[in-house]
Design brief:
Strand content: 35-45%
Largest sheet: 5 strands, antiparallel
Distance between the termini: 25 Å
Number of domains: 2
CATH superfamily of the largest domain: Impact, N-terminal domain
Number of helices: 5
Oligomer: single chain
Order of helices and strands: EEEHEEHEHEEHEEHE
Shape: elongated
Structural class: alpha+beta
CATH class of the largest domain: Alpha Beta
């Protein structure tokens, strides 16, 4: 059986940390695609345009296989990777953590930077509300109106969430279903003669 759920955060949370006069503002943001991530980073760069560094890491997709870490001008491996490891340590996905640094004039050194960015990421994530989400598959299909009752019976049985429907002589439906039941639902639906998956 596939992993059927993942943990993410419910809303934006913010943390603040001051180390040797450097101020670290951290943001944990729920995201589910690269476009949303890019928009959030762009917005942070615009808002905190006077900051020395804006570093971040993200993990997206239910299995957490899509990820990236950026040092934002800090020495390689001292910012993005510690932020990413903090996200991973909490087994989170669909999360962006960005840290804005205002340099205070005192250098922290490599180990000091790693510790600071890790702690800054923790500060934001500690304020976050964690939620468990089910992994779902989206299925699109068309079928003749005469099969509507049969289709509805199957969808109700598997507690499918209907996203959109158009009822006419030929009906079209889009719905989400728990990924563990996806194949089973398709098998049941494929017994309906007029039904086609899109």
């Amino acid at each position: 059986m596939k992993e059927s759920s993942f943990i993410t955060i419910k809303n934006v949370s913010i943390g603040k940390l001051v180390i040797k006069k450097s101020t670290f503002l951290s943001f944990a943001i729920p995201v589910d695609n690269v476009t949303t991530i890019e928009c959030n980073i762009k917005e942070l760069r615009k808002t905190y345009h006077d900051a020395r560094h804006i570093c971040y890491a993200y993990v997206i997709s239910p299995e957490g296989q899509d990820f990236r870490a950026s040092d934002g001008g800090e020495p390689s491996g001292t910012a993005g990777r510690p932020i990413l490891s903090t996200i991973r340590s909490k087994a989170l996905t669909n999360v962006l953590v960005a840290v804005v640094r205002y340099f205070g004039g005192i250098k922290l050194g490599t180990s000091g930077l790693i510790a600071a960015y890790k702690q800054a990421a923790e500060e934001a994530l500690n304020q976050a509300v964690f939620v468990t989400c089910k992994i779902q598959d989206t299925i699109n299909m068309t079928f003749n109106y005469t099969s509507l009752n049969d289709v509805m019976h199957i969808l109700k049985h598997y507690e499918a969430k209907i996203l959109s429907k158009q009822i006419d002589s030929v009906c079209s439906f889009s719905f989400k279903i728990d990924i563990n039941f996806s194949q089973e639902v398709k098998q049941q639906l494929s017994k309906i003669l007029s039904l086609q998956f899109l």
